[in-house]
Specification:
Keywords: Hydrolase
Pfam family, one: Abhydrolase_1
Helix content: 25-40%
GO molecular function: epoxide hydrolase activity; haloalkane dehalogenase activity
CATH superfamily: Alpha/Beta hydrolase fold, catalytic domain
CATH class: Alpha Beta
Strand content: 15-25%
Largest sheet: 8 strands, mixed
Protein name: Haloalkane dehalogenase
EC number: 3.8.1.5
Distance between the termini: 59 Å
Oligomer: single chain
Length: 320
């Protein structure tokens, strides 16, 4: 009998080692760090969001980029939720939120910002820090410029507000589309919606591609491939042209209101290169600036470092 139990113990230990399983059982997730997955109605749209953290804690609003969703924050949310209320919505047409056709909803950054503004009010976000990444920057800066009293701090991760940040080869065909919204110009951008392009966004500029989970494009690509979604994304490419004319307004917001700002920027990003990070130094006095040796989706490779930087930054800036 003892021999049997010893054999089982050896086999179990061998299995644990072979599969890299923890020897000690994982601690149960605390109620505050457990991520909840919710949906709320905003203007007859189902807006999906992830939330964790104490209801009475300082709030962080996480605004995602293209072509992903709140899924990009799946690891960051529990890393911040011990102390902060962390809320990450999916925009219309993205993730698990409603995706009406382009004939049913006007896919513009103005409209996305309006929906997210109403979302924040519905879920009771009175003041908050904003994490702005990629598309999250033009959405979030619209909110900040309209309601500066609501914004406690900014966390900018590869999110642009300066002409220098879009003066590179990636933007040339998109800028051409802003000038000529023809079918030919639009069709030329459909290559940005393919699986290869999605993988490239996640892997270009990273130190070690093996650290990037295929669950990323495994989540994104089926959503991009939904019927009608390419038309949604082309509408958003065109609407991005509405952002550069607002840069002076956003920069004036920086200079006038001086929101404490943390820059955590993947410096090898070929979409929003580091050239777009440095101009923030012109306008912001209370600025913490970090260039990370990674690519566009910096959270995938340097999420733990970014979480540490955010906790340190907010710990100094917020008194709650």
């Amino acid at each position: 009998m003892n021999l049997f139990h010893n054999s089982v113990a050896v086999l179990t230990l061998t299995t644990i080692i072979a599969y890299g399983l923890p020897v000690k059982a994982a601690e149960p997730q605390s109620p505050t760090t457990q991520v909840l997955h919710r949906t709320i109605k905003v203007d007859n749209l189902d807006i999906f969001y992830r939330e964790a953290g104490p209801k009475d804690g300082p709030t962080i609003l996480l605004l995602h980029g293209f072509p992903t969703s709140s899924h990009m924050f799946r690891n960051l949310i529990p890393a911040l939720a011990e102390k902060y209320r962390v809320v990450a919505p999916d925009y219309p047409g993205f993730g698990h939120s409603s995706a009406p056709s382009v004939n049913e909803f006007d896919y513009t950054f103005d409209n996305l910002a309006n929906v997210i503004e109403k979302f924040t009010e519905k879920v009771g976000l009175k003041t908050y820090s904003i994490y702005l990444m990629d598309y999250g920057a033009p959405v979030g800066f619209r909110l900040a410029a309209k309601h500066p009293e609501r914004v406690e701090t900014l966390i900018v991760q590869n999110g642009n507000a300066y002409d220098e940040g879009i003066d590179n080869a990636f933007w040339k065909p998109i800028k051409a589309y802003w000038k000529d919204r023809s079918k030919d110009k639009g069709d030329g951008l459909r290559s940005l919606l393919t699986l290869d392009a999605t993988k490239w966004q996640y892997t270009a500029g990273v130190r070690n591609v093996e650290t990037i989970s295929p669950d990323t494009w495994g989540h994104v690509q089926p959503l991009l491939d939904r019927p009608g979604n390419q038309e949604i994304q082309l509408a958003m490419f065109f609407s991005y042209g509405s952002n550069p004319p607002l840069y002076p307004k956003w920069q004036e917001y920086f200079r006038k209101h001086q929101p404490p700002t943390l820059i955590v920027w993947g410096k090898n990003d070929q979409i929003f290169p580091a050239a777009g990070a440095f101009p923030y130094k012109r306008d912001l006095k209370n600025l913490e600036f970090h260039l990370l040796d990674t690519g566009h989706f910096a959270l995938e490779e340097d999420g733990a470092e970014i979480a540490t930087l955010i906790r340190g930054f907010l710990g100094k800036q917020l008194t709650k």
